[in-house]
Amino acid sequence: MSVQVLIATMNQTDHSLLKKMNIQSDAIVSNQCDFNKIEEFTYNGYNIKFISFAEKGVGLNRNNALMRADADYCLFADDDLVYVDGYPQIVENEFKKHPNADVLIFNLIEQERKKSTISKEFKVNWFNFMRFGTSRIAIRTKSIHFNGIFFNLYFGGGAKYSFGEDTLFLASCLKKKLKIIAVPVYIARLTNERPSTWFRGYTDQYFYDKGVLFYQISKRYCKFLCLQDVIRHRKLYSNGGMWDNFKIMAYAINDIRHGKLR
């Protein structure tokens, strides 16, 4: 069995990221920058593909690595992670414990414990899948490739709609009836050393993009998803009234339904 880390990063000019992230397995580094270059080399005995393209968009960046993945299991990563020692064995062991799982969700070590921290193993379904970021996801590679699942190019940092590519990836897995399990196991530490590439506060644009995201998740239930979101997060969203935020999301949904892609 083999493990491969699929790293999405930007503006790397050398290979120092591998040491910084404590890479202890094969890896594909997908680097968006201002030049085109493909390198293959060994690092501490592991096979590394370092692919640099003059492109932008996190979905495209992740897809460039995903389409080249050839290990049994893959971890998605951003460049602000530091993996724990022995993470390849951890991933392999968890998939062995869950032979029917196509996707596993792990914990990250963060400065503050969050509601999304997994304290007990559970099955991920349509009622709880939207809380997990890409860097917590491990995949059984053949399941993802066979079902033709990739990241949506319209969503995420650098794309038309600023976030949601991770949510849509998991939604695609659920639509294909793949089995997703969340396990209370830590695989990496999140350093928080760089600002978000997309979050600029709870602005009108944020709610517009979220409306489009909910439409992409479910054309039938998108407005219900908008409603539950503004109700559950009414204290968090301090930019304006709850119904004003809902109206912006509903406006975005109506735009998409009428063929208006911003």
TrEMBL record:
Pfam families: Glycos_transf_2. It comes from the Bacteria. Signal peptide: none annotated. Residues 39-153 form the Glycosyltransferase 2-like domain. This is Glycosyltransferase 2-like domain-containing protein. It comes from Thermoclostridium stercorarium subsp. leptospartum DSM 9219.
